[in-house]
User: Fold these one by one.
Assistant:
Number 1:
Amino acid sequence: MYSPRVPPASSISARAQRLADLIRALPEPRVNIVAHSMGGLDARYAISQLGLGGRVASLITIGTPHLGTPWQTPATPCSGGSRALLRRIIDLTAFGDLATLGMARFNAAVRDDPGVSYASVVGKSGRLRTNPLLWPSHLYLAERSGPNDGVVPANSQAWGEVLREVEADHWAQESAGGRAASTRLPCTRNLLRELRGRGF
């Protein structure tokens, strides 16, 4: 199992190029990708736009904002104070790509590869089961989009087959059952075992 790192605050296209380069350098002829948050968009872009489809058997996204997140849309602008608070919680540099209208354009251009199996894990959390640092963003999203994980609306996360829904905030989703946010590997390993059971 590999854990490639991409620039945390770059555009989707720049992050996707780095991901594509890393995957092409692997010895395996085909790989299964499990990607959290914006990493799912990086992988979709790399598969569709950078010719990575032949190297990828499946993509599972976790908490990925496929339909965008309403942080900076014209209809729901953040006030200066809200933007300053959000910058303390999450890096908003890359979020310019993730506004709802921007993701509509992304989805129109970035088409699924028929040779790749797409699936997703959808996460959401009640406020009291959300990391307190995400409470302001959780409330902001709840007022605008309903159930969410503190960063991404739940209704934005489904792509392909929904493998499971988890009660976990955005920072805890990769851990087993949404618990122990510092232990991210168990959930990923479970998903990879499921893929192997399906013949990937």
Number 2:
Amino acid sequence: MSPWKLHSSLADEIQNFIHLRRLSGTDYQSQAQLLGYFDRFLFEQQISGPPLTREITDDYLLGLSHLAPRSRSNRFCVVRQLCQYLARNNPRGYVPEPLKVIPSQGAHPPYIYGHSEIHALLTAASKLPPSNSLRPHTYRTLLGLLYSTGIRIGEALALNQEDFQEAEQRLYIAQGKFRKARWVPLSASTSQALQQYLHKRFKMRPRSPDSPLLLNQRSSRLHHSTVHHTFQSLLRQCGIHHNPLTGPRIHDLRHTFAVQRLLAWYRDGQDVNARLPWLATYMGHVDIHSTQVYLQATPELIAQVNRRFYHHYLHRVKPQGGTP
């Protein structure tokens, strides 16, 4: 179903297009919501039906100028897909050119949280009001889980009680990105923190295995918008400068996890290149190219790389080549 009832003259065509895309095996939920915005535009502008013209799509694109480049590109991309669908049955229909792709790094420069900042965020979360409620424990657990596992915020909010297997110390991500399921092994400390949270969580309803793991104050599943609003408030409390467009974001905890994992491998003398596929699988990526987006060059990481190169030079290169 679409996120709200469609009202424009193209409502039936838009709904048929959404249904067709879902038949391909994707839920098309977020894209359907973006098409809902376009339907509202058509309704408010009193567009009288197909075919869609260049003037219509240009006006819609102009109305998106207030959005960040990535958001604007996403909204217009699904509209272009709709235009391609409509043009199959109406040759007079206009199909706009795709917008220039905005690199992810350019749209939102990742922010790598320091250990002191993570500690401050967890401390602030544990003091959230009401003091005698589950809320502070929920947010501390959520932030700690994101930092220690690198799972996506959507994956964390979708967790049910049965997805945490205490004995095996692992989480089951039932539906990650591209509808991929995976197991996520947990450290002993993370597993213990989840057990402690569940001890408090089980005092509240619902308690069925398929009920949400993380509860809000109404004993239901946490909502994205509420979590992001609370996180921005925590950033301000901790004195971490925040810009709504550039971050830091809660998603940057995932970037931080990837960098900290790489840093730990360097410190332990591990073969980092051999372990990158492990990290990609753990984070739910198709290949290491997606994972590399998360590997930012922090001062600590650069220092470890330089140290490894220096030792490699002393033990391998210099003995063979002699004194430079």
